[in-house]
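quick one
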Amino acid sequence: MHLRVLHHNNCFDGACSASVFTRFHRECIGAATRYSYQGLQHKAGVQFEESDFSGDENAIVDFKYSPSPRLTWWFDHHQSAFMTEADRAQFDAQQADGWHAMRHFFDPNYISCTGFIAKIGETKFGWNTEPLKELIHWANIVDGAKYESACSAVEMDEPAFKLTMVIEAASTETIQKIIPLLTEIPLADVLQQPFIAFQLTPLWEQHLRTIDLIRERARVEDGIVTFDLIDKPVEGYNKFIPYYLYPEATYTVGLTRSSFRTKISVGTNPWSPISHEQLANIADICQKYGGGGHARVGAISFPVDRVEDARRAAGEVVQMLRG
Ligand SMILES: [Mn+2]
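structure w/ manganese (II) ion:
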C-alpha cells in the first residue's frame, strides 16, 4: 500500500506534520509499504491537481482542504483551510458519517498542525505521543511565533530555529530527506546530518545579507513596517527580522517575488503589547485578496508577472491595518 503525504512545503510545521502523520499511520493504522511526500505551496488559483493524489491512501497535512474523493486523510489548523463555501459544506456534511469523522480533521484553534495530529492520534486512536514531546514543543513555538524575543528568533539560538531556516530555503528533495528523521532523532542530531550541516554557513550568510537589505528598504509609519524586495532574488526570509530591526512596530507588510509567485507577507509583531482584541485579523484581510493564514500572520499570492496588482493590494492592506 502506497501512502502519499502532501504537506505544506518549506515550512517547519509542515515538515513536522508530515513526519508525525507518517509515524501515526505506521503505529496506529499500518499496512503502508511505501511512503511518498509532496510539498505544496500556496499560490494564486488552483492548489491541487487530481494527479497529486496518486497514492492508495492520500493525506494532506498543514494545508488546504481538497474536495477530491481520493483524499483519505486531512489535518489542518489554518483559518483559511477552505477555498470555497462548497468545500466547507462538503467537509461539514461528511463529518456526519463515521469514516470521514475519523479521517478528516480541522481545528483552527491549534497552534501547530503537528500538535493537532498528535492530539487526535492520542485521543481518538490511543496513540502514545510521549516520544514526540520535543518536536511538538518546538513546532508550537515556531508556528505559533512564541519565540522568547525577536533576538532569539533572528539570532536562532535553538536547533529548531536553525532547522526552520534550512527547511524554509530547502529543495523538495532535501525536505523529503528531513521528514523521516524528525520523529526519529533529536533536532540537534538532525542538524548535524551532513546533507544539512553543509548548508548552514551559506544560509546564515544569506540571512545576514537579508537583514541588511530589509534594514535598507524598510519604512515605518504608524507602527507598520513596509518593504518591497520585488527586484531582489529573495526566495524567503526570516519573518521576525522587521521586529528585530523595529521592536516598536505592530505590523509588517512585505513584498517579495520568487520563481513562481509574487507574494505579500502580512504579519503582527508577536511581542507587541497591544491586546489581541485590538489587533487586526490578518487572515480576514488576506482572504479578501484570495490569500489566507492565521489571525496574526498571513499572505497573499499573485502570479509572478502581476507585480503592480500586488503592489496596489499591499498599499490597500496597509490602509486596512491603519484603520
Ligand atoms: Mn502550520
